[in-house]
Design goal:
Structural class: mainly alpha
Strand content: under 5%
Distance between the termini: 29 Å
């Protein structure tokens, strides 16, 4: 399996090039990158991100970038770990204490959700009230998981959008297929925990609808004319683009 993935190269290859080998970005694409988690928003406000593109602005309002110029934007990029998107339907079914469910919320649901904390806590409170049992434990089954799934579909955070997009892009590069084959080989003998440990290091097949949608947008909102794609150079450890165990258990 390829152990290195150069994130900027993956982005570059995901968009079509003009006949001159350059990319022509409209303002919508600049905002797309911001809204979908490519920029480290804690370090760089949206205004700073827009200013970074000014040197590349053309008379028609588009931003023209060569491959080398595009790579200079790497310093603005979010460089934290990119996990496989949290899958609410993989939460272990059963009873949870308030603290246990709260940990699930803080570790997996909150980072994946764009809602402000008061709104998210309102959702959590309503869910807790609905599924609280006489023994004071929260019973999480399919109905509860569907509610969490819908929350994340309706209000995905920029980071989740980034995770979904890379889930799809890396799958197309063939990385996920290799891992799925590895998983199939051990599925008859490995325990669920052992399978989780293997999945924790990479991607598996099966993009979500939002993943497909965001990948399509990435190509549609650029001014495109198909051309050859450069081979990836350098790389970033795959361990920084990995599957989160939080998507496998509650």
């Amino acid at each position: 399996m390829n152990e290195n993935v150069n994130v900027m190269e993956v982005i570059w290859q995901a968009v079509d090039k003009a006949e001159d080998g350059c990319v022509y970005y409209p303002v919508a694409f600049v905002d797309f990158l911001w809204d979908n988690g490519f920029v480290d928003t804690k370090k760089f406000p949206r205004e700073t991100w827009h200013v970074a593109f000014e040197p590349f602005k053309q008379a028609d309002g588009l931003f023209k970038l060569t491959h080398e110029e595009f790579l200079t934007l790497n310093k603005y990029r979010y460089s934290g770990e990119i996990h496989i998107p949290f899958d609410a339907m993989r939460i272990n079914e059963g009873k949870y204490t308030d603290e246990g469910f709260g940990q699930l919320v803080s570790d997996s649901i909150a980072p994946s959700c764009a809602l402000a904390d008061p709104e998210l806590q309102k959702f959590v409170g309503e869910l807790t009230k609905e599924f609280k049992q006489p023994d004071d434990l929260i019973l999480i089954q399919k109905s509860a998981k569907f509610k969490i799934k819908k929350l994340l579909e309706d209000s995905p955070s920029p980071l989740r959008r980034l995770e979904l997009l890379f889930d799809n892009l890396l799958k197309k590069k063939g990385i996920a297929k290799e891992v799925e084959q590895d998983l199939q080989k051990i599925s008859l003998v490995a325990t669920p925990e052992q399978q989780a440990e293997l999945q924790a290091s990479t991607f598996i097949a099966g993009p979500s609808n939002l993943s497909e949608s965001e990948a399509l947008k990435l190509k549609q909102i650029t001014k495109v004319k198909k051309n050859g794609e450069p081979a990836p150079q350098g790389g970033e450890p795959l361990k920084k683009i990995k599957r989160s165990k939080k998507g496998l258990r509650g």
